[in-house]
Amino acid sequence: MLLLVLALTACAGETTRPLTTAESELLALTRFRNFDAGVRSVSFAVTDAGTRYEIDAWVDFQAGAGYGTVQLPDAEESALLAWTSQGVATAATAPTGPAPLPPPTQGWTSSELLPGQSRLHAVLAVLLSLGSDRPDNPVLLAQTDARWLREDSVAGTAVTVFRGPSSDAPAGAGSTTGTPAPSGPDESGAAEVRYWVADDGVLHRLEVSLGGDQDAVVIDLDDADVTFDLSQLQ
After folding, report:
1. Burial class of residue 44 (count of CB atoms within 10 Å of its CB; 0-12, 13-18, 19+)
2. Is residue 212 in a domain?
3. Where is this region: Disordered (predicted)?
4. Per DSSP, what are the bridge partners of residue 159?
């Protein structure tokens, strides 16, 4: 089942409906499509503790690793950013444009990935959860509170927009059975995940609300023909 287990609340006035069988099968493919692609590009901006970070990176869904650049406010140069489920690392500066390949092995400062304490870290952790070596179970997915929202397009590609399930439990059940995903440091409001999915199951956009009164984080995903290895970072 989808691992993004976040408490959902529908937007006021929004028309939604339960998933059809075909829509459940489509949404169930998204994490497998990412894993099958291997590496995809991601770009997003997130405000964390009053600071806005702009990230352009790649995620290797098979390796469970991300690498790219992060632009800081008022900085002339970007910093390099690398992360796995165990930690996040930055290097002081990066050249203009995409992150260099292969990644440099020296000059990194590392820390633990703490999605419960940082909105940026929460989004990085969510990205790592978007890959799976097999499709999710569409029958079980159809029993959750996932919803169809609307038809849309992303960069000229027709997509269907879905609201993700709040848990792996059937709709109306009193308990959850899935593995919870990072909910972020702000527990003062409901969180929500939305998926923009093409008719081949490829995810083109993800919107993550981490709760509270801050704007949702919109993540755009695209194809990428790159490889990288973070195992030698120091």
Report:
1. buried
2. yes
3. 162-188
4. 152
Q: How far is CA 142 from CA 26, 71, 95, 146, 165, in A?
A: 11, 39, 46, 7, 9
Tokens describing residue 162: 């879905």
Structure tokens at 49: 């503790």
d(CA 174, CA 188): 21
- C-alpha to C-alpha distance for 211 and 183, rounded to whole angstroms: 8
The pTM of this model reads 0.86
Torsion of CA 165, 16, 14, 205, to 10 degrees: 50
Degrees to nearest 5, angle at CA 207 with 205 and 210: 155
- Neighbouring C-beta atoms of residue 230, cutoff 10 Å: 20
- Cis geometry, peptide bond prior to residue 98 (ω within 30 degrees of 0): no
The count of domains in the chain is: 1
CATH of the domain at 189: 2.50.20
Q: 2 lies in a domain?
A: no
Location of structure tokens 């489920």: 85
Question: What is the domain range of residue 208?
Answer: 17-223
Task: Report yes or no on 233 lying in a domain.
Answer: no
CA nearest neighbour of 209 among 7, 1, 3, 22: 7
pLDDT one-digit tens code per residue, 134-187: 999 999 999 999 999 999 999 999 999 999 998 765 554 433 323 233 355 554
